[in-house]
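Exercise 7.
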Amino acid sequence: PISSGSQESHGPSSPVFSVPPALYPKPRMGAQPAAIVTPGVNVTLRCQAPQPAWQFALFKSGEITSVLYRDVSMELAEFFLEEVTPAQGGSYHCCYWNPGWNLGVWSHPSDTLELLVTDQLPPPSLVALPGPVVAPDANVSLRCAGRLRGMSFALYRVGVAAPLQYRDSAEPWADFPLRGASAPGTYSCYYHTPSSPYVLSLRSEPLLISADGSGSLDYMQGNLVRLGLAGLVLISLGTLVVFDWRSQSCAPGSVSP
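Solution. The predicted structure, written as tokens, is:
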């Protein structure tokens, strides 16, 4: 259920019917404790006007008829959503009205606030930049990408219980740099809301980072070449020894066994 905390009434006219002039700036909208919560949490939607207002209106996208009003004589109005359900999630915006304005003229609407009510966030993707094969002397960055901004991200490595790295990000992704020599392994990541009540995502699909074998292959090929040359030298020396022995055996005055 939604309540305004004070008298609810129908405004002098619906804000959707009037186009306000530029001198009626839009309010700001926020949610406490957060815009992403689990079911059953009490949420307060706050509409903050940049100037004193007499009446505020709250709208939810797709439900034009369910408009709530609150009569106040200040810059802030609060709308209380008690024990929210997933059905109460959605896009909200608000506007305000001042009795000194013309009848039926409301402020510009606030920016949309997305309220998400869920037990679990969708899993992120995990990719390697520039790629999952890393040379020992190169670095790689693992990007954990979700769908929401302002989340906290954690990177895990298979076989290690604690998070390998942790990042807060204003973007819907976070980058985790790794050194090439120690990068090979299997990784996964997840993200969650940055403050309580925490809502966690599912884990990403595992990502395998492997070492570039070209360096060791070149070293092995070099060893094979060196061994081959050493073998040729030994064969040549052996041929010279045999040739010298035969020469001495066939020389005049040599004694046959």
